[in-house]
Protein 1
Amino acid sequence: MKPRGRRRVTARRPRAARRPAGAAGGGNGVIETLRAEVARLRESESAAQTALARKEHMLEAVLHLGRVLSSIKDLKQLVASSMVPELVQLLNADRGSVFLMDDAKQELYSIIALGAELKEIRFPINTGLAGYVARTGEALKVADAHLDERFNPEFDHKTGYRTRSVLAVPMRDHAGRRIGVIQVINKKTGEVFTREDEELLVAIASEASIAILNTRLVQDLRELFDSVIVTMSAALDARDAMTAGHTHRVTEYSVGIARRMGYARENLERVRTAGMLHDIGKIGTPDAVLKKPGNLTRDEFEIIKQHAAYTRVIVRNLKLPPALQGLAEEAAGHHERMDGTGYPDGLKGAVIPEVARLMAVADVFDAITSKRHYREAMPIDQALDIIRKGSGPHFDPACVEAFMRYFEEELRDRFAARASGAGDPA
């Protein structure tokens, strides 16, 4: 048996380390890949930051609009003077409109500002792009309105305006019922409105709906309050045909004076309300005194004087809104005198509420120029002379001056017509 030969041991060479695929040229491939990834992430982060900034701007814009709208309680002013200008600015549009639905008439109407006046425009709900949105509840984004068969070109034909891009969305109440349409026209960049614009307008429509519904609620409550006042005033007038109309005339004159004294619109409403209530306390005056055909005795005059205090009690018992606090003192104070000799409290000078001071002029002027059970109406020149002489001791001179301007501007022709038998100041 042959002896086995020894195996030759051969030293193995170590294998070269494998490189990652695509990593030619050493580690340069890995570095380039990482660099590309970092650049992509940075670009993505920048886009995200830009998108975040846009969303934050949209949110702030909508919140700002909500704050602006919530402070306005008059529907016409809300729509024409506040909502539309904000809408146009936020959407960078050439024009904007807010259309409200009149379900009873099946119409849409919009309120536009023409200088200092507000004008209402109406059209059938089955007309135009806004009408389509109102009927269907669908948002609408149109690149060229004149190529859309739903568009009503009547406005463009009348005015020469060229409507191109349009974005319109519905406004809804808390129950999802459609209450109107909010619309913007012609983006100023010349481009069409974007999806982001639509998102912003939908958010604006939500805030606008809340503001409109709240304003309508306030308006409805105001109309209810007014109807109560008018009914109370009518009940007072019904007691004595001779003095019927006095409340309305004093109210009219008082508002005319206040307007010449620079009262703002909301304060004119306050004057109007005080005027309608100023004699409501006469409900408690006995007919024997109220309708007496001759001069009153001292005791009877004391009874008549009580109506001012009764007025204050009645008005204080009304559930007045915060804006009308103090109205009871204004309505009751129209018999106070600047020298302190008036009633019911003997107030003097500037302590008398200004509304009561101007109403004092209106009340005396109507009383002496109207027929009463115990005398005929006083001639107008004599009445004006009494008002002038009362300036200082009886009346606030500023109120007298305002009344005189008001009389010359609005009342003189009316009284001249009455004197000639052609008209009546009421």
Protein 2
Amino acid sequence: MTQLDAGRSFLLALALVCPIAAAQEAPTDAPKPRPEVPEKPKVRLPEGVVARVDGRDITRTQYFEFLGRTAFKQKDGDQTVSQLIDETIVRSEAQRRDVEVTDEAIAQRIETFRQRVQERSLGKKDFDQYLAAQGISLEDLASLLQLVIAQEQMVRIDAHIPPGNEIPTRDMNLWLTEMRKKNAPELLGAPEGNVVARVAGQDITFEVIGAKLYQVLPESEKIGRLRELANLTLLFAIGVEMEVEVTDEDLDAEMARRRALLAENEQLQGISYEEFLKAQGLTLADVRRSRKVRAGILLDRIIDRLYPREQLEAAYAERKEEFDSLYGRKRRASLILLRSGAYPNALRQRSLDEARLELEEMRERIRKGTGFDYLARTYSEHGSKERGGDLGNFTAEDPNIPKEIRQIAFTLEKDQVSSPVRVSQGYALVMVTDIEDNPGLDAMREAIRNHLKREWFAKQVEDAHIELSDV
């Protein structure tokens, strides 16, 4: 786990959760775009059950633990652990000192926040709507403010700050730093169980971390994570039914595969896989325990059973035209991009028409003998310019190449240059430098296997009876 910020006060944590003083409202004539949020599931399940997969219940506790484990050693997870440690320290110290925070004090502080929201939104934003937009309820805010006020009372005493005087944020931070030293939080880097940290005699578990994270997740992500957990539950259930399991040998093979992929990366030469993980705050044990890693291995083992060599070849023979189109025919092409329109070059502003005309002139220069490579290195505004515009090999369905480029490339002959092509960032010239058609099944075997794998699991999800409820 990365080093956590020991000087972080609850006032700062509150600013992150409910940033009234820190964040200005957007001008009313320039509203921020709102992402589409899928409609909440309408299924009613028993209390404490948030999803049901073919009759198997997923409880709220399991869901929160999944959220916590997913965020473990990630930025959001580390910040949440740090905040929970701070909360636990303040709560424990307040109990030890018999510090009392009255309901009146909390209500008064909430009213102050309410007034600030209305002032900053010119009275147009409802306070409850504002809290909902921040991902917290009024009860959540009251609980957090109770801790903030308790910390203020203790800091005022310890720092000898007279009543009525403002408490500097610096004093709040220093106090919390000293309390952390006194309580010495124990961070468990690779927990075997459910406990991530211990402080002031209290355990911080994956479930507690997940519950905290849930408060600030966008609605679409809450549902998306629940669907992800339901899909994992389905896959592991299928593995049990098919008597397919992930063995230590499978995990060893997966670690070897990942090491090989790392060794192929020119930018990471000389770095071991363990060093690569350490830079991310992870260990090899973390990866081997990961439920997602095990799910990926399990799915591979299932597909190996369903599509051994003979069955995969039969699937290819049956769908040859489709698979050849997707994974067989390849093009290698180079690109010259001129940004324009909504994606202008910061140094050279141009309209779409101007970009198109410039590329027409370049196309004419190429026709007269100027090298495409030279023009790409000189004028292109794409990341491939240092390679002379080379995009490498790609298929007609390669998601890494823009659709417009793929479509035009598969209409060109070798060494033919396209007319200017409208793309999302402006206009581009495309030249095909190599053509490879129908390389044979062996060259496509892995791609076809992955296609069948995605197709099979999508069908399992479609056929399963998955019910999702409000958390």
Protein 3
Amino acid sequence: MTFRKLTCLLAILAMNVSHADIRLGQTSDLSGKNKAMGVAFRAGANAYFKWTNANGGVRGNKITLISLDDKSDQELGFKNAITLLEEHKVDAFFGIGGDNITYAVAPIADARNILNFAPDSGLPYWEQSETNQTMVMTRSGYKQEIDKMFNTMSHGIPATLKGRAIFVAFDGGYASMDLLPTTKSKSGADIPDPAGYIAKIVAEYGAKLYPLDLRGKNGVEDAVKLINQTINVTRDIEDRLVPNIIYISDIEKTLQLNDQLKKSLSYTPPYQFMLSSVNIGRINGGKNDSVSITYTCPGLMDYGNLKGSIARAWSATTPPSQTPNNGDMCRYMQGFIAAHWFVEAYKVAGNVSPSSFKQAMPTVVSNDISNRVMRFTKDDGRFYLVYADTGFVK
């Protein structure tokens, strides 16, 4: 066979070689109490992956995201992770949903040395893990979110929060209402304690945390009594109200509690609401609405700061007129950006091994997000953009 014929044959064979999909596995809440967040995160990620695939894939490979529903149940999440590995043969985990599910899946990823990219958890898993060689976080943690909100609420002087009462309602369904220590589940995975972790953060500001349980029949009424017994009014040196803080993740319960508090207080409310991971479609800048809220998102929510490939993808997949109504927009954008960073890191790494991704991520600079810096610290292993602002619930 002549060299020319051999070259032609190799070219024909190359044209007939099909690239294997990059198969990513996700277990998340798609039908349970936190389904709004899980569905929105998945939708955002799939929107970016779909755009990537339509534009040639990444290194010629198509990306497939296989999502299983765990209903926020840790045992089911643990089983789903095994199913994704053994039956669906996924190459990596992506967007594992929730603190308790992250705690169940992380040891599996470590034991099998499989990349665990963008788990949606604000807790510091690595503080309680002997290894953690496989996790790459792409969202801010609770500490970063709370620091950002506290700084916003205190007008840049966090010291004014010393002595404040911080009321936290873990209304997402966490069992740990009494600041219990971490325990083990049936699967052997840690059961996280978000209440205890947030209490430590609050203590750093010299404030005190008071847990609110709004789940019972008289939950709101009991909360009003506790708040009235505890809050006090203080103003800073510029005569601005220094708020006590009520931290609730559910907008509807926030409105209920605010209505009851307004009836029981005859003076300027000495409290300010905080919301994490809010539905941006419910917040605006008007002054005639029910309650002022300082809110945060563990990913970017300022669409005007997108540029480059991620801006092109956003324009192509998310019509601006639909943006505020796209479910939980914070989580949608979080999933969208996580997918973008996965694609960019894969371009650098060339594979999905945890070590290659960990080396690649610091080089995935924020060129596609103007006026922002992608944060990374070796201590907490998070790449993140955290956003906070103050607005009024529609």
